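Rotation project, supervised by the postdoc (A.L.). Task for the rotation student: set up a whole-complex structure prediction and record inputs and outputs verbatim in this book. Inputs entered:
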Amino acid sequence: MSSTTTHRAAAAPRKIEQTGQQKSALAWLTVPALIFFVVFALAPLVGVLVLSFANWDGIGAIGAAGLENWSSVLSDPGLYNALGLTFLIMIVSWLVQTPISLLLGVFTAGTQRYRAALAVLYFLPLLLSSAAVAIAYKALLDPNFGLAMGLGLPFLAQDWLGVPQLALGLVIFVIAWQFVPFHTLIYQGGVRQIPKSLYEAAQIDGAGIIKQFFHITLPQLKYTIITSSTLMVVGSLTYFDLIFVLTGGGPGNSTRILALDMYLRGFRANLMGPASVIAVILVVIGLVLALFLQRLGGKDKQGSQLEGL
Amino acid sequence: MKQFQSSRRSFLALAAVTPFAVMATSACGTSGPGSASGGGASMWFLSGEPNQTTIQKAVDAFGSSNPDNKIAVTYFQNDAYKTKIKTAIGAGQAPTIVYGWGGGTLKTYAEANQVEDLTSWFEANPDLKNKFFPASFGAATVNGKIYALPNQYVAPVVLFYNKELFEKAGVQPPKTWDDVMSLVKTFNDMGVAPFSLGGQSRWTSMMWLEYLLDRIGGAEVFKAIFEGKPNAWMDPAVIETGTKIQELVSADGFIKGFSSITADSKADQALLFTGKAAMLLQGSWTYGPMKKEGQNFVQDGKLGFVTFPTVAGGKGDPKNGVGNPAQYMSISAKATDKEKETAKKFFKEGIMTDTVIDAYINSGSVPIVNGIEDKLATSPDKDFLNFVYDLAKNAPNFQQSWDQALSPTAAEALLNNIDQLFLKSITPQQFAENMNATLGK
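Outputs recorded:
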């Protein structure tokens, strides 16, 4: 008899009342994860908060600075330039990447063999490291020794990374080139989860492909869109390596986004205090954005997406 | 049952403590990347030829004659190294031998007691001290104390030009700023860029400012800036310098797309030897790479070099130079006594040996040691080497590169503002004001 109970417990653990002992055992299992979270996430966060009120050049002694760092950073036009650029890149990147990855995801979710081959091709940019992508683009775009001159197409030999507006546009393009594959993959998975029967029912009712897309695919992908957007938006706060290698924040300050501004202040200019202020601002913006996007999902986000709804 | 729980608890406690234990052992630095095993010392150096081979040979030679005091070297790329060494020193993980360029960065290390005071050691070893150019100790000295050993070579900034293009145009290299502006027109009319510039690297643009300010205002202007005198950046010479730079930019003096060209990739040198640009203001350290990669451009005698032109009405001595008086090596104050001893022994016997000096001369550089005139005279590169040697030796003032002379905070602000000055996104007046705000930082 007892063996049947255990068997059942294993098969449907939620249905069985947990004994106090089991509960405490489960609580213990979270301890290692908690420790890692505290050591590698919370402690540095507190450290950064403390440093934002400190005077430190990264080498000598740490002294108290009061609100000095905050007032100097908040009154620095450089901060608002960086903030503006960060949000501009975030929004434009979302507007560029989401439709492309959504459509590519829907397309590659099909079953024909050529789609699988294309999906592999689309996926390739994601396999390259950001630094490699940046170096490659930099070499290709060089106005004197780059691809354009090599192919004999002088009209393409623009000063792509030397003119502020062009450089910003190019950064957004390269980011999209690198990350569209990832979001395509997410959408591909999302589309494959949609039950075939929904489309069959729609076909019987006489809905065309476009109607099916807007009335079945898109609504069914709601949570996929939110997931992908969260990753895209919060991820754009940390775009760093690619821009660092591609433009170094230049020309002038035209691509000096917040994460790069933080690095340059902290590790180039030895201003750890002001850099920590920017780090705190980044964390706050990231949290607010992530919470906002989760709210968009609505309260039924735990609900089923499967047929029967 | 109780027993079982307690043993589980102790297991979890162990699991919980382990990461801390691991962190504790790595944090005390005994097994960190900065230390060497046994009685040896560690050193970080810059990657890239020909210097990497030269230094590796010196280290190997020192190691084979001192088997108990070996030096372990790790190589890094220039820009990556500059960030890494700062972080390592801040974290107490510095190598025994700290390589650098002296000046403002060394000052921050010295004031934080991170590097050894070598003054008394140099006094005890006068032979060693007298071996080097006296001027090379300037950037190694902080508040009257010597914190670094000068080494490698002197590297002034030089105006290089393409002789072939100058012959074709029937013109002479510029002697005055007016010559510069008229050459800009000549070469633009020929369809050749007057000046090559790796503007994305920013310190490349800085060299223009250094020389122009020196020629216009004399060495005193920068001296006042370095000493943090009030309103030192607001000197009219600074504003005139900025104005001249923007005039040159407006006249298409620099190659199209200069702000996206980097010096790390050596694209600015390539523009000169491929004939796409007529002139290049760069450090003498670019001679070696151009000789190696320039398709016989140097060997065929097509590379010309002159000092920076004068500016009409300027106060600066036309013999003044700017650039790197030397490279420097300090000893980490955090190293053990044994490591420090090894480092000092290496400084004395291992680093600027005759073999190393010859290697630098063979690669087209002027080592910073006295009594090398004979060696320079017999070198195949003797024209260039003598030019560099005379420039460095005869300069009434040899200004260390600003990004090294200033504090890291001011240097970063300078590079950023120079970039904007060249892009004409700020006026010379704004440039001076922005920089004035960094005085004393």
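Student's summary: Chain B touches chain A at residues 8-9, 12, 15-16, 19-20, 23, 83, 86-87, 89-90, 108-109, 111-112, 114, 199-200, 202, 255-262, 265, 267, 270-271, 276, 407-409, 411-413, 416, 419-420, 423, 425 (CB under 8 Å).
Supervisor addendum: Chain B has a mean pLDDT of 86.
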